[in-house]
Amino acid sequence: FMDGLMIMCTCQRNISYLVAAKSWNRPIVGHLAWAMGAVPVKRAQDSAKRGSGNVTIDVKQITAQDSSNTLIKVVGKGTKFTSEIKAGDKIRFPKSALGIKVESIDGDESMSLKLEDGVLEVISSQPFPEYAPFDILPHIDQKDVYQNVLERLASGGTIGIFPEGGSHDRTDLLPLKVGVSLIAYSALEKDGINVPIVPVGLNYFRAHRFRGKVTVEFGSPTYIEPSTLEDYKRGGSDKRRVCNALLGRIEDSMRSVIVSVPDYEKLQMIHAARRLYREDTETETAEQRQDMGRRFAEGYKRMLLKVKGDLPEEWLNLQSRILSYQKELNQLGIKDYQVVGLDHEEVEIGSETQGHGKGETVLHRMNIMGHIVHLLFIIVLAALPSMLLNFPVGMASRIYSNRRRKVALAASKVKIKGYDVMLSERVLCSIVLVPTLWMIYGLILFFFTNLDGPSLAVCFTCFPLFSYWSIMATEEGMADVKDLRPYVMRMIPSARKRLAALPATRKALRADLRAVIRHIGPSLGDIYYEKDVNWQEITTETKRLSTISSEITEETKAEGKKED
Q: Which residue, 96, 116, 425, 443, is most buried by CB atoms nearer than 10 A?
């Protein structure tokens, strides 16, 4: 929901999004989607149901079969395949979002699955040959949806597609659905339109928190190679091959506009390294943070490939120190930029080792208390209008969105913490509660005051303006709250010692990080040297190196087995 709004706010074209029918049928979301000219799509995962019994797969049959065999035999126990599943449906195993197509039903306890991209990875993650539960995803005919989309493209419209098939909060892309390739080839075949497929990357910073930020980046368009149209028309394996090839190019283009890393811990490390590397006097824009973060992410993946995942001890030690530094900041409740200020202050003033007198200590503590009182006064002033107009809505939306997050997290196979849900749900809740609160205040003024009609009208029409001003004031107040934490922590003896050690820790980390980057940077080419980088070329090259590395690893394993 919010992704679509963010793109519409930054794009000059009218976009018709493909929206899940589940969202289309929701109040407010559905109305907004209708107003924006969205196209509802029924998704198989929204109609998923638990299959009777459990199933198993003989993993040996997959590793032993020849390349021409594209079927996987499934054996059930207590299953009802003939009555619950039909050919063309898909099944889904626990902890996996990928649906595997059913090729044929051979009986109540026997069926065949189609071996496609990503299926082997899913099967290897399951406890086979132990029996496991499964979900059934019914086949859904999307003919009408495709026709609607093609008509809009033929008339010069723009279609917005989320090719991963849903929202998530992972640090990397999910496998893309082939629908975007089918739409592009259908438009070329039926209407002769080689539509540009433009990747859009949305990178959120604290999206589930008040006044979070987002960067929206549009990448270079991807086009179909016209010479592949004949292969598409032939159908069968040729059609699958060219569609998958296009899907791979689309995935490369999407990776060029996001910061993708293996897991959340690596994402934390990369953001911490980015902050340590930059000059303290520099003020970064969101675009500069995005660019530097991507350089660190791609450089890290390149170096992992170079050393085949076996990082040198000094790199692992540096990585551990960066994460420990970030953990210390989180525990103390301060930001990296605030550590720079600590370096210019006598945090340990009054200690015997520093040789400060008692009078100096008292004066310094009084100065800290003065800062605390001043910041508290500013915060209270900012909070007064917000307490009446925004605080009730903020608390209600926070509780509601957290409940919705837990529900979505329990129902999802791909979400990690469900923070992507919280942003949309908080906005939707606020859309309802904000005008409701204004109406309640209006009724209170009408029944419990002596104001006349014009005065009531003025008060009611001022509510939106006062709400906006209070949001701006609260934003400034939140910045003061962040600055307040270091002053409070300095009043605690144990925390004061930890604060005193931070500047030296940061200085040593920064020096070691820059030394490592100076050492490995030249081997990264454009990522290190160029100011303006073609990220699509960079991600494509990283993918190529990853493929080569995987092939070498597989060959090494195969040679090892032969020797055994």
A: 425
Predicted confidence at residue 528, as pLDDT, reads: 87
Buried b (16+ CB within 10 A) or exposed e, 49-83: eebbbebbbeeeebeeeeeeeeebebbbeebebee
Distance of alpha carbon 369 from alpha carbon 444, whole angstroms: 41
Q: What is the Cα–Cα distance from 2 to 77, expressed in whole angstroms?
A: 43
Q: To which residue do tokens 């529900």 refer?
A: 407
> What would the pLDDT profile of 341-365 be if each residue is shown by its tens digit?
676 554 444 444 444 444 444 445 5
Contact (CB, 8 A) for 165 and 19: no
What DSSP assignment string belongs to 417-478? S-HHHHHHHHHHHHHHHHHHHHHHHHHHHHHHS---HHHHHHHHHHHHHHHHHHHHHHHHHH
How many Å apart are CA 74 and CA 133, to the nearest integer? 12
pLDDT tens-digit series, residues 106-125: 999 999 998 887 788 888 88
- pTM (2 decimals)? 0.70
CB burial of residue 232 (10 Å; 0-12, 13-18, 19+):
buried
Cβ within 8 Å of residue 435, ≥6 positions away: none
Q: How far apart are CA 455 and CA 452, in angstroms?
A: 5
Q: Find where tokens 């605390």 sit.
A: 372
* CB-based contacts of 145, cutoff 8 Å, min separation 6: 18, 39, 40, 41
Considering only residues 196 and 418, tell me which one the structure prediction assigns the higher pLDDT.
196
Strand partners, 132: 55
Joined together, the tokens standing for residue 136 give: 């059934």
385 pLDDT above the threshold of 70 = no
Can you tell me which residue has the tokens 């940077």? 521
